[in-house]
Amino acid sequence: MLQVNYIRQNKEEVIKKLLVKNFHAEQVIDAILLLDDERRKTQKQLDDALAESNRAAKEIGALYKQGKRDEAELLKARTAELKQLSKELGEKLDAAVSGMNEKLITLPNVPHPSVVPGKSEEDNQVLHEEGKVPDLYEKAVPHWDLITTYDIVDFDLGNKVSGAGFPFYKGKGAKLQRALINFFLDRALDAGYTEYQPPLLVNEDSGYGTGQLPDKDGQMYHATEDNLYLVPTAEVPITNIYRNVILKAAELPVKNVAYSSCFRREAGSWGAHVRGLNRLHQFDKVEIVHIATPETSYAVLEEMRAHVASLIRDLELPFRILRLCGGDLSFTSALTYDFEVYSAAQKRWLEVSSVSNFESFQANRMKLRFKDDQGNTVIAHTLNGSALALPRIVAALLENNQGPDGIRIPKVLQPYTGFETID
Q: What is the DSSP string of 235-268?
């Protein structure tokens, strides 16, 4: 959530920047500033009424001691009026604050200056590309045929037990999943991350804190009776560890990693590009989360970008890194790098990771702060990234490494799988 003072001091700049995200903010911002004016005015009136009431309370006792009963009674009557006025002003203040916050949560985060305008993923900028696209043998097929041939993922069974988009992994497919998770976690631990195993259900405050609510309400699975949400990513519980927390400067940067299953309704998803493992309602992902100072957060973002690149590189997959344009940038992000691997049988790029800096947007919603070296309380910056999401990584590994005698497992995974091929 953007801070009101920042909006007030940079109104035209905020409006201009949000246009990069194709968001027309002028009317909302005008409404916010009017409500903030009302809040300020009412707060002053309330403060004045409370101050007068406090002065009167002290004077009443003195007047009684001086035998000035009539004056004391008049002042008591005034304090009763002030009490009622304070109640009315308090209610008016609450309404102004509530109305302002309802408007504030509809404003996206402002993009970083390096983010270019654009309408969709077609306008994203390719920053880096590496790795050789494999030449597949003539009978190569997409992964949705491979998983049937080698009996390693069962969509029919998943559909029977749960529904579409909830596959069963079996045999070497299940072991490949576990191998990837352990590989990703071990690499994160080697890089200095602290591992967590988070809950898979979070409350409404947590969804609000990281910005999934209310923006992505329709995409989240909601246990309505308990008002809990299945996590769309481990980002939500891990970042919310620090909701309403004031850290010390010496504790930064925070570096956490977590594996979790992730749940997304993916409403409206259809077509060939969501076939097989390309898009699921439940999938596994290892997530890295950073909390940093405003001065260091973009250096941290580059560190995260390098970490994710090293994972894909060691899996021997051709990949590219994109900087998202304004139209493809998420509601909460200031700057996002997407990582895509090349799927040789599908002949297209598949997104496997997003690495984002949210600057103070999430932290302001969560009241996540730290004490700097001068003792000042400062809003922190939050960042996160997929390191990595499994389904499309598995799709690319299966497709790119297939041959007439089976599917080759990359060397870095073989100690985790215990086998060199799926055959």
A: HHHHHGGGTT-EEEGGGPSEEEEEEEEEE---TT
DSSP letters spanning 163-217: -TT-PEE-THHHHHHHHHHHHHHHHHHHTTPEEE---SEEEHHHHHHTT-TTTTG
pTM exceeding 0.85 = yes
Q: What is the pLDDT of residues 387-411, one digit of tens each?
A: 999 999 999 999 999 999 999 999 9
Q: Are strands 369-371 and 246-248 parallel, antiparallel or unpaired?
A: parallel
pLDDT digits (tens, 9 = 90+) for 120-130: 999 999 999 99
Q: Which residues contact 56 (CB under 8 A, 6 or more apart)?
A: 75, 78, 79, 82
For residues 394 and 169, the answer to whether their CB atoms sit within 8 Å is no
Q: Give which of 23, 7, 8, 9 is closest to 327, Cα–Cα.
A: 23
Mean pLDDT, each 10-residue run in order, the chain (423 residues): 96 98 97 97 96 90 85 90 95 97 96 96 97 94 97 97 97 98 98 98 97 91 97 98 96 97 76 82 98 98 98 98 97 98 96 98 97 95 98 98 97 98 97
**Which two three-digit tokens encode residue 146?**
């491979």
Q: Whole-angstrom Cα distance, residue 391 to residue 167?
A: 11
| Residue at 192: amino acid letter | G
- CA dist., res. 299 & res. 264, Å (int): 31
Q: What percent of the chain has pLDDT over 90?
A: 91
Give rounded-to-5 percent helix, strand, coil for the chain.
Answer: 45, 20, 30
- What is d(CA 127, CA 83) in angstroms, rounded to the nearest whole number? 63
244-267 burial, b at 16+ Cβ within 10 Å, e below that, comes to: eeebeeeebbbbbbbbbebbbbee
Would residue 271 be called left, alpha or beta, if left means φ above 0 and alpha means ψ between -120 and 50 degrees? left
Contact assessment for residue 75 and residue 60, using Cβ atoms and an 8 Å cutoff:
yes
**Could you tell me if 143 and 277 are in contact, meaning their C-beta atoms sit under 8 angstroms apart?**
yes
